[in-house]
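Can't paste images in this forum, so I'm doing it all in text. The chain is below; anyone willing to post the predicted structure tokens underneath?
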Amino acid sequence: MAHSPYTHVSMSIDPGRRPRIGVSFYTPVLRAGARMLESGRPFLSLESDEANVTVSTTGAGPVTAEDVEVARQIFNAAARYLADCERLHADQSADSDRITTSVVDETAA
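Text version of the structure:
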């Protein structure tokens, strides 16, 4: 089954609650970047052709201890995501090699 890339954006508005926006990227056409504005404020950006998510400091102001902790959580989560992607990609490549070898063995017989 082929999976087509896409970006999903949703918004929920419930009475008495703050609106909630969700952005899900399911595409290799994703750009990730980290920069610093001239003001010295750092920001992280994830964007596809359809949506953009930016993370920066609290209230767009000076860096707080909480901002540093959030940045550390993002870093650790990204490292785990990378490790999982690398492991699964290696497993899928090995499975593909086994299938190819099996098909070649069957056609040679």
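The longest helix spans residues 65-108. Strands lie at 6-12, 20-26, 31-36, 42-47, 52-56.
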